[in-house]
Design goal:
Structural class: alpha+beta
Number of strands: 17
Distance between the termini: 86 Å
Radius of gyration: 31 Å
Helix content: 40-55%
Bound molecules: adenosine-5'-diphosphate, magnesium ion, zinc ion
Strand content: 15-25%
Shape: elongated
Largest sheet: 10 strands, mixed
Number of helices: 15
Number of domains: 3
């Protein structure tokens, strides 16, 4: 039997706000347990939530960056379940009126993965089972703002899921919505997988897989599920709808809970928060603050004459392109800026194993080296030496280093002509060879003159002077 896989993804993304969704506690990763909590996010009786407007703003940004439609009317609901990391006994989420619907992501094979909805909700705390005797609870994460992004079941393979997630992450990072760092838990993804006989209409029964901690694991978990379900059906089995967990150590999924035990969340409208009206003005304002999308940026780089490799380097993250844009603006030459940023800056960045945001030179400093080279005061190789020296001591200027290192390029025709004359006089034999038709002799003469000027002669000027004096 041949099977057609169907996949839908539910992705939780933490919003990069200063504070939590309904209280003033800091939204920060890595603090000592239970140091970022208050009566609201630790679920004390008698407290009231107040919506963090910044979270709504970032959520709307995400929706717009993904081409979704933002609702003009939306509300919050309580989703009830009991677990130690959820002190209130319910999570404030959105049920029937999410703030965003539609939108999607285009894959390279031109398939459009449609989004069903995006809603706002609060994160739960963290239950820690592997330290001490019982379960420990850290509520620092409780109340951190999340958006949940749910796709239609449009994804057909593990590779497509991987591509969707990569593009989703890129879009959200560029829009400044979230760090999307799976290691810090600021992006988490559950996958729904089903298989169905290839020639038959409709869909199979799905299983949802949770506890996936990297994009690589997403791929592995989907591949495993497709295989498991196909084999089971082939051997006469029936798939029951269930929630499974990914066991990365064993490279397989296993049953967490079946639908029979599935929770009834008893959703009802959150009485402590008024419904929201999101005006078109608010939506337009938000749209205006979204930075250029990765694809728009790529398009612009192509138009500036950058090549594929350059564009790849300059779009590895938003900071890379931002750095480049500032260098290009400061030196006035987009192509030269690309050559230097992808060449020297990227080389040093790789050697130091740092990101563009942490690069020791400001874009203006890098541009100042490019300007020295473009103006002819320094050769390209001298420019590279100055660049390295500047990285070592960022308090100097490129001009200072040019002088200190004695690298100033000689463009003065009188000085160059003198050097040419001296070398020609001392090499009558080579000159004769050249005049006798041996073109190659020119290179040897050039090399000697370069040596005489300490490698600092302007190559173009030198060549001109040499040819002129040889013609005589
Ligand atoms: P629930 O409300 O129980 O979470 P949904 O119908 O909202 O279920 O679907 C959740 C996710 O499962 C969505 O991403 C959706 O695209 C996906 N999904 C729905 N049906 C299937 C199916 N037959 N196979 C794979 N994924 C599916
Ligand atoms: Mg769901
Ligand atoms: Zn709090």
């Amino acid at each position: 039997m041949e099977f057609r896989p169907t996949i839908g993804l539910e992705t939780h993304v933490q919003l990069a706000t200063q504070t939590k969704l309904f209280c003033g506690c800091a939204n920060r990763f890595g603090a000592p347990p239970n140091t970022l909590i208050c009566p609201v996010c630790s679920g004390q009786p008698g407290v009231l939530p107040v919506l963090n407007e910044r979270a709504l703003r970032l959520g709307v940004r995400a929706a717009l960056a993904l081409g979704a439609t933002v609702a003009n009317y939306t509300k919050f609901d309580r989703k009830h379940y009991f677990y130690p990391d959820l002190p209130k006994g319910y999570q404030i989420s959105q049920y029937d009126l999410p703030f965003s619907s539609g939108g999607g992501i285009r894959l390279e094979n031109n398939k459009f993965v449609r989004l069903r909805r995006i809603h706002l909700e609060e994160d739960a705390g963290k239950a820690i089972h592997d330290r001490g005797d019982g379960t420990l609870v850290d509520l620092n994460r409780a109340g951190v703002p999340l958006i949940e992004i749910v796709t239609e079941p449009d994804v057909a393979s593990a590779d497509e899921a991987y591509e969707y997630l990569t593009a989703l992450k890129e879009t959200l990072q560029f829009a400044g919505v979230s760090e999307c760092d799976m290691e810090k838990g600021s992006l988490r993804c559950d996958v729904n997988v089903s298989v169905h006989p290839k020639e038959k209409e409709g869909f199979g029964t799905r299983c949802e897989v949770k506890n996936i901690n990297s994009f690589a694991m997403v791929k592995k978990a989907i591949a495993f599920e497709i295989e498991r379900q196909s084999k089971w059906i082939e051997s006469g089995g029936r798939i029951v709808q269930e929630t499974r967990t990914w066991r990365d150590d064993e490279g397989r999924t296993e049953t967490l809970r079946t639908k029979e035990e599935a929770q009834d969340y008893r959703y009802f409208p959150e009485p402590d928060l008024p419904p929201l009206r999101i005006t078109n003005l608010y939506i337009d304002e938000t749209r205006a603050e979204i930075p250029e999308s990765p694809s728009a940026r790529r398009e612009r780089f192509v138009k500036s004459g950058l090549n594929r490799e350059e564009i790849q380097t300059l779009t590895i993250d938003r900071a890379a392109g931002d750095y480049y844009d500032q260098v290009a603006a400061a030196c006035g030459d987009p192509k030269a800026a690309a050559v230097w940023v992808c060449g020297e800056v990227n080389r040093v960045r790789n050697e130091k194993n740092i990101r563009f945001v942490d690069f020791p030179l400001t874009p203006a400093q890098t541009a100042s080296v490019i300007v020295l080279v473009k103006s002819g005061r320094a050769s390209v190789s001298a420019g590279k030496q100055i660049f390295d020296a500047l990285v070592r001591d960022t308090t100097k200027t490129a001009g200072q280093l040019l002088q200190e290192l004695g690298l100033e390029q000689i463009s003065d025709p009188a000085i160059i002509e003198n050097a040419v004359r001296e070398v020609l006089a001392a090499n009558a034999k080579i000159v004769a060879e050249y005049k006798g038709g041996k073109e190659k002799a020119l290179g040897s003469l050039m090399g000697q003159i370069m040596k005489k000027t300490g490698g600092r002669a302007n190559p173009a000027e030198l060549q001109l002077a040499l040819k002129r004096l040889l013609e005589r």
